[in-house]
Amino acid sequence: MAADPVPTREYDAPPIDVALADESLSAVEKLFAICRMWLDEYNLPKLKALIAENPDLVELLATAADPEKEGTAMHWLALNSRVESMKYLASLGVSFTVLTPKTKMQPLHWACTSPHGLNAIQFLLEEKVDINAVDGHGKTGLMIAAQHNQVETLTLLWSEGGDDALLDSEGDSVLSWACYGGSAEATRFLLCRGEAGVSPTCADPARPDKLGMNAMHLAAVRNAEGVVGALLMHADAQKMCDATDANGKTPHALATARGHAELATALSEWDPKLLSAPTAWQWWGSLRARASAVHHACEWYGASTNRAINKRFEWVQPYGQSLVRSYFPSVVAVVEGDAPADLTANKASAAASPAAAPSVSSTAASLELSETPPLAAAVEPPPQATAAAAAQ
Question: 134-270 domain in CATH 3.40.50.300?
């Protein structure tokens, strides 16, 4: 799998006024210095002034690529969700679907790499940009978001019609890219989506791509220990571990060949019996592996601002409520009014002033997600695990 270059926001860039005053910089270099910055309120007037002083820039806006990161001006603006500047460039004739020269990525794809790109994604979709558009490797925005561990972007794209059944040019899925990117949170989230029965590709991590590599192979290649840990909790873990790729190598063999000694040891010592009879520590680890999904489930429950369930989470509402009821009863108490007075007061303040009230996710974290694992008696394993332990 070929990973595209990763754009990053310019945290260490010199102050924009210093860059614009530097006579050694060309007009194009100053253009990108402005586009890499964050705020429209401060930088849009500077962008307009630069183009007014250098009208020849108008013809270069759609073709000139940043010499350092390849993206055009529109790509950088999308990465930073500078929507007003994007509108300004569009008024000068720049397309919202302009491509990078080599990787053929659209601004939408760049926005999917960063948590700061959500507003730009929403804007681009309102402008009728194809949500399932692919780059030069056949990757969609969903795949790129999964690769970069952007769970919120995944939920936004799903709500707007993103198709996670698509495969890239090498036969890799959204889940494949999450695993290859080492994106543990996105991997767990996607596996939960598969378990919920709404995504066949996410429900089958053992599916091989054109190179014969399943999700475990891809995680082993990248030494993604968190991803491997999530995959080992899946029902098809043994199948993934035993499978060989097109070169006849198992995930363990790939990890060994790449020098990932700790991961290779973990794969060689893994025992499938752990899934049927987990210890208290292992069961708690399983719960914590779903922590991100449960935090989202709290939001799906609709408690943070006492609002109706947002349409983007409708697919998982029953599944999310089940997780919350099972593992976070204190959250349910807050939602349904059975909580102690201080928590109920928080809920009332949320209804009166949503911005000032604590979110239900933070409430869940403070009530239930302590770093210290509970005693065995405090974590009740599922009935099938209890039965298996008794049989032994």
Answer: no
